[in-house]
């Protein structure tokens, strides 16, 4: 589902440097009169969040979930790297993977992108806005692709703390139903000029 390799263009956008933390999501949940336990380590990434709830959180911040193309552009750079840091094989100093648990969102690793975006490989996988289609890349537009118009599943990217090195590649695609809540799955928000009113 990563084929064919192709070039796309995306308009200028911003993406959060860190995953959304448990503390940040718990604050949002309280404002919505909902319950979310930040636990004893509130700076761990927020997990157990459905796609729908992640999108709602981002909108509450005046943002949205990034598209798959935006996420991948942020992670790969214009060079199209296999990993956020380049082509070097993954190791613990670069990414948090093949581990027993996630690490806090504000712990820097050497594998950040050139623009300083952290943990785009490993730690937690991340929801993006797109519906999933195994064959979408065969027909995707080259300008600002946003995924299929409908579908049963949504895309998530980036691998997680328990992933193998092959699964933290920037091009790797995963899919899940929008209601899935999982200990490996978190998110970050994005924003583009056209989103501002």
Characterize the structure shown.
This protein has 197 residues and is low in regular secondary structure. It is 15% helix and 11% strand. It has 3 helices and 6 strands. The chain has a 4-stranded mixed sheet. The longest helix has 10 residues. The protein starts with 12 loop residues before the first strand and ends in a 5-residue tail after the last strand. The mean pLDDT is 96.
Helix-strand layout with pairing:
Elements: E1 13-15, H1 22-31, H2 51-60, H3 68-76, E2 125-131, E3 154-157, E4 174-176, E5 185-186, E6 190-192
Parallel strand pairs: 2-5
Antiparallel strand pairs: 1-6, 2-3, 3-4
Q: Tell the overall outline.
A: globular
Low-pLDDT windows of residues: none
Q: Can you summarize the main beta sheet?
A: 4 strands, mixed
Q: Distance between the terminal alpha carbons, to the nearest Å?
A: 35 Å
Mean pLDDT, rounded to whole units? Answer: 96
Tell me roughly what share of residues is in helical segments.
10-25%
Order of adjacent strands in the largest pleated sheet: 4-3-2-5
Total beta strands: 6
Rg, rounded, reads 16 Å
Structural class label: little secondary structure
Oligomer: single chain
Question: Helix segment count?
Answer: 3
Task: Tell me the strand percentage band.
Answer: 5-15%
């Amino acid at each position: 589902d990563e084929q064919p390799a192709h070039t796309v263009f995306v308009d200028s956008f911003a993406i959060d440097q860190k995953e959304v933390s448990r503390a940040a999501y718990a604050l949002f949940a309280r404002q919505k009169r909902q319950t979310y336990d930040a636990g004893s380590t509130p700076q761990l990434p927020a997990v157990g969040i459905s796609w729908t709830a992640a999108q709602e959180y981002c909108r509450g911040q005046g943002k949205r979930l990034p598209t798959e193309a935006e996420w991948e552009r942020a992670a790969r750079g214009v060079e199209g790297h296999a990993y956020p840091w380049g082509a070097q094989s993954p190791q613990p100093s670069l990414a948090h993977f093949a581990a027993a648990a996630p690490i806090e969102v504000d712990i820097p690793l050497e594998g950040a992108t050139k623009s300083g975006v952290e943990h785009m490989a490993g730690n937690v996988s991340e929801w993006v806005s797109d519906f999933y289609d195994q064959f979408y890349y065969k027909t995707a537009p080259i300008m600002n692709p946003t995924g299929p118009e409908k579908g049963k599943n949504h895309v998530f990217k980036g691998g997680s703390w328990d992933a193998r090195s092959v699964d933290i590649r920037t091009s790797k695609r995963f899919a899940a139903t929008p209601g899935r809540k999982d200990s490996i799955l978190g998110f970050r928000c994005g924003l583009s000029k056209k989103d501002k009113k």
